[in-house]
Specification:
Largest interface: A-B, 25 and 23 residues
Radius of gyration of chain B: 26 Å
Distance between the termini of chain B: 64 Å
Order of helices and strands of chain B: HHHHHHHHHHHHH
Distance between the termini of chain A: 34 Å
Number of strands of chain B: 0
Number of domains of chain B: 2
Strand order of the largest sheet of chain A: 5-6-7-3-8-9
Number of strands of chain A: 9
Strand content of chain B: under 5%
Order of helices and strands of chain A: EEEHEEHHHEHEHEEHH
Shape of chain B: globular
Oligomer: heterodimer
Number of helices of chain B: 13
Amino acid sequence: MEVYIKKAGYTPNQKSIEQIEFSMHPGTIIGLIGGNGAGKSTTIQSMLGVIPYFEGTITIPSYGYVPERPLLYEHFTLREHLQFLIDEYNDKTLWDKANQLLTLFQIDQRLDDLPIYFSKGMQQKVMLVLAFLIDRPLYILDEPFMGLDPRAMRELLVLIDERKQQGASFLLCTHQLEMAEIICDHYILLHEGNIQAKGTLAELQQMVGQPISLLDIFYELQGRLQ
Amino acid sequence: MFTKRLYRSYQFNFKLIKSVTDWTVLLYLIVPSTIIGFFLYRDIARNFQVLELQPIPLLLLLFVLSFFLVKPSLRLYIYDADLLFFKQQGRKIHQIKLWGYSYSFLLYNCVLVILLLLASPFIVFPFWEVLFALNIISVLHICIQYRYQNWFTKWPLLLIVHALIIFMLILPLWGLSILLVVVHLRLLNIVLSNRYWTIEVRWEYEAFYSWMKRIYQFSLEMRYYMPSKTKPPLILLAKRKVLSTHRIDNLVYKTMLRKLSYLKSPIQLIAISIGLLFVLPLWAKVVVLIFSSIGLNVALSSIVNEIRQAPFFQLMSVHENEWFQAKKRIKYRFFTPIGVVMMLLFFII
């Protein structure tokens, strides 16, 4: 899985990100971190192929995606959302798996309701169920912990770990650096559309010259630029 | 602050109407319909024999009408962001709510008085008693809304309230006045308690965008900018039923079933075409058939294309061919029965 973004943006002559290059290996979790407007979402959109102006090469397999803001179909119930996805694979056993995930995230009682009227956390759970329903080699998670209750957060961490053990790769975009420090193997720090630093926690610590937390590393590196 | 908010609300609606009304709409639609409406009403009112109903039929008529003339919710001109200074500026919030309350009922009564005056040339009824009774029902209605959110779920309670108050029209006016004051005090107590803030903000949001919703539903392009819905529908049609084994077909059918504005335009077109088949000469019927089939084709295509634009499909991959095949099947399913009916009508008439 290779990602090389020479440049990408939303308007013809204005690049939002450039020279973003990294590779992903099976069973690893990469944390994509950076301040607001650093280019995290643009990087993800480039990988998904939904950015208007893009130059580079992206080689990724089919993926499960959790967007920053829930993308729900206004006129579909939760059951119909799941059915729509399951119909693509024509595999009836997927319903058993869906029921497990629904129970895990405690939304199994809301199957016949319209998710657009759910709370923010519940909508996020719907997105997680849809993303994890199919076993994929890659998962792209954009702020997956946003709005989740502590129990759901823990269930998600267990789920990520299970899939990781099965060989799946993750690209995790988050502002919760304490959480990223626990689960990620590699980090990519973005700043103003460029890669500021990348590597494991140990490599980043070496870069700043102190054995400090990811949050402190982020603070230290950002401080150097200002 | 209340007047500023009121001004902002009117300004929003004014700009909205201005954006969709150009001089052609004004000249060919609004001005003629106002003038025709005025003269039509005047002529009918002049020639109409005033109805003098017996008390019981009159009360029954008022009972039915009361469901249409009731004030469904309250607009208090409070916003979500008011919670930011809710504690510090409690007095201001209190004042805004009081002004909003008074203004809402003032406006409601103005509309009610106009409607009752317009009805007065046609039927004899006790004007002030009816006005007071409708006000009492409205206040009680809002009280029930506060408590149960959706009065539709408590319809027996609502039927009793409407029936009781309408039959109270036999009371003297002072009796109704006392009752009105009592129910207003009860409602004011609920309003000023601030315990139903979320509901009040939702009502404000719905009222603020009500004209926008009404106007934009006529235009497919503008529907994209419609404000988001705040409450789920009462009935969700075909909740557990699969309407087609093909997932896109199922999606389109369910969307059309749940978003009635999608169904409306093809049905309108078919109804108009059938009507024209009855009155037009043979050559014109052929033209109608051709144009109605083209129109129906365009309407169905634009509905499917609009559904395709939903952000949900950034998440779910649907192959281009899947859309194409679905469109073909849907058109076939719609066109076959409609085409047969139209052709039968064409030959029979």
